[in-house]
């Protein structure tokens, strides 16, 4: 623990697939192994990477989102993320400047976070298929946004010593220091599936993988220079509240099928005095007694549809709970609250039947983007008329017709204000939608 405010860095890249997660985990694990009080964060809406950061550092990792979070909430989450740490290293998502079309500082891009807190950028460059030309990309990133300071670059997928010399020759013209280089190595890649990396808790050899990345960081990266580059500020923790809980004793589904809940949501609920009581639908556990609300997060129910359909105690207990207390489902949880779920092979599995929706993973279509939702009735997300911001990322399709406003959860627009109609369902005390709640607007 330290009383000194944390300094920050952003590990970003010109595009997705450049190796940001590999580099971030390598740095986090290596510094933690040295005894440095380091914490991770993730820019943008991602449910999976923060768990890897937490595994690497032993500290919670939180999402920072300049579009979906108000400035007050963003500072509160950043302060919570950096509490007790000397360094806060944020991992970007997509490309450094990728976001929605919005006012400066509110686009959801990684760059907004670095600019707001004065965190220098470490740029990860995938140099496969390029040599000196990679320097032009790095130079463009440095010049594109005058709010940012690019502290240096880390080269990824270097083919040979000669290849590295050519890339560095180009970078010498830009004045950007090279802080390390990683060779092409498929063994470094973490296992993936359709929504991103296989979850941290499902990666059986994760500790060994993280230690191999730390070993690599010690030999291939200039960790001292990376630490020296950290700067800027992290807001103090506790200056403003995190999101309010839907109840004071919340039954929270938690297993391999239900795990996508943003860390700041759970932290906010606990900070408000709520107790989170986990239970496992895959283990055929019903929502625990004595709870006054039930929350089914997203995850991978489509991979476990048969097991969930056969979980009689869970389904009966969920139906019984919903008779007297609120139940809300996000994305995968919404699918399980519906009438049926079609798996990738086209087999239909009966679900809880609490909402009049049927979904299919066999009829895959990517649904991706921010959702700004105006609630149509009082419920676990807030009172009628309240505006909530979330994010949708799934491949499932709805087989049933969209509800009218009398049965829908919310009217929604995308991140740029385009009307998308209504989203989700509500019936009695049960509600759900495909978007994951991030915060109020």
From TrEMBL:
Miscellaneous comment in the UniProt entry for this protein: The a and c carboxylates of hydrogenobyrinate are activated for nucleophilic attack via formation of a phosphorylated intermediate by ATP. CobB catalyzes first the amidation of the c-carboxylate, and then that of the a-carboxylate.
CobB/CobQ-like glutamine amidotransferase domain span: 249-438
HAMAP family: CobB_CbiA
Boundaries of every CobQ/CobB/MinD/ParA nucleotide binding domain copy: 10-195
Function: Catalyzes the ATP-dependent amidation of the two carboxylate groups at positions a and c of hydrogenobyrinate, using either L-glutamine or ammonia as the nitrogen source.
EC number(s) stated in the UniProt entry for this protein: 6.3.5.9
Protein name (database record): Hydrogenobyrinate a,c-diamide synthase
Active site: 331
GO molecular function: ATP binding; cobyrinic acid a,c-diamide synthase activity; hydrogenobyrinic acid a,c-diamide synthase (glutamine-hydrolysing) activity
Family in the record: Belongs to the CobB/CbiA family. Belongs to the CobB/CobQ family. CobQ subfamily.
Keyword terms, alphabetized: ATP-binding, Cobalamin biosynthesis, Glutamine amidotransferase, Ligase, Magnesium, Nucleotide-binding
Recorded catalytic activity of this chain's protein: hydrogenobyrinate + 2 L-glutamine + 2 ATP + 2 H2O = hydrogenobyrinate a,c-diamide + 2 L-glutamate + 2 ADP + 2 phosphate + 2 H(+)
Major enzyme class: ligase
Domain of life: Bacteria
A GO biological process held by the record: cobalamin biosynthetic process
Free-text note regarding domains: Comprises of two domains. The C-terminal domain contains the binding site for glutamine and catalyzes the hydrolysis of this substrate to glutamate and ammonia. The N-terminal domain is anticipated to bind ATP and hydrogenobyrinate and catalyzes the ultimate synthesis of the diamide product. The ammonia produced via the glutaminase domain is probably translocated to the adjacent domain via a molecular tunnel, where it reacts with an activated intermediate.
InterPro entries: CbiA/CobB_synth, Class_I_gatase-like, CobQ/CobB/MinD/ParA_Nub-bd_dom, GATase_3, P-loop_NTPase
Annotated organism of origin: Methylobacterium nodulans (strain LMG 21967 / CNCM I-2342 / ORS 2060)
Residues flagged as site, Increases nucleophilicity of active site Cys: 436
């Amino acid at each position: 623990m330290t009383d000194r405010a944390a300094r920050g860095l952003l590990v970003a890249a010109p595009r997705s697939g450049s190796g940001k997660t590999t580099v971030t985990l390598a740095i986090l694990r290596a510094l933690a192994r040295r005894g440095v009080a380091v914490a991770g964060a993730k820019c943008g809406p991602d449910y999976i990477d923060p768990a890897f950061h937490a595994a690497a550092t032993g500290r919670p990792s939180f999402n920072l989102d300049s579009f979906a979070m108000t400035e007050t909430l963003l500072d509160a989450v950043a302060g919570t993320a950096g509490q007790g740490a000397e360094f806060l290293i944020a991992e970007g998502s997509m490309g450094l400047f990728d976001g929605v079309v919005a006012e400066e500082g509110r686009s959801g891009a990684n760059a907004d976070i670095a600019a707001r807190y004065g965190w220098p950028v470490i740029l990860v460059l995938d140099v496969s298929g390029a040599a000196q030309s990679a320097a032009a990309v790095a130079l463009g990133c440095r010049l594109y946004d005058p709010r940012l300071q690019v502290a240096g670059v880390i080269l990824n997928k270097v083919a040979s010593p000669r290849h590295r010399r050519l890339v560095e020759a180009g970078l010498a013209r830009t004045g950007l220091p090279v802080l390390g280089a990683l060779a092409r190595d498929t063994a470094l890649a973490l296992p993936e599936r359709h929504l991103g990396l296989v979850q941290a808790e499902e990666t059986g050899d994760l500790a060994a993988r993280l230690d191999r990345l730390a070993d690599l960081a010690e030999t291939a990266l200039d960790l001292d220079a990376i630490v020296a580059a950290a700067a800027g500020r992290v807001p103090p923790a506790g200056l403003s509240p995190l999101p309010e809980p839907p109840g004071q004793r919340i039954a929270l589904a938690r297993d391999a099928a239900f795990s996508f809940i943003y860390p700041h949501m759970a932290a906010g609920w606990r900070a408000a005095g709520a107790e989170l009581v986990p239970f496992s639908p895959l283990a055929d556990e019903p929502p625990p007694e004595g709870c006054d609300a039930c929350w089914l997060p997203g995850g991978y129910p489509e991979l476990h549809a048969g097991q969930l359909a056969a979980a009689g105690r869970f389904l009966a207990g969920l139906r019984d709970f919903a008779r007297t207390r609120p139940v809300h489902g996000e994305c995968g949880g919404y699918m399980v609250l519906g009438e049926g779920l079609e798996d990738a092979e086209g087999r239909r599995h009966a679900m809880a039947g609490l909402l009049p929706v049927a979904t299919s993973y066999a009829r895959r279509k990517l649904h991706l983007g921010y959702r700004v939702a105006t609630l149509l009735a009082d419920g676990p997300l807030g009172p009628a008329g309240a505006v909530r911001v979330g994010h949708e990322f799934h491949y499932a399709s709805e087989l049933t017709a969209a509800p009218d406003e009398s049965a829908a959860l919310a009217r929604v627009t995308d991140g740029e204000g385009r009307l998308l109609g209504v989203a989700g369902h509500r019936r009695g005390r049960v509600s759900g939608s495909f978007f994951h709640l991030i915060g109020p607007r």
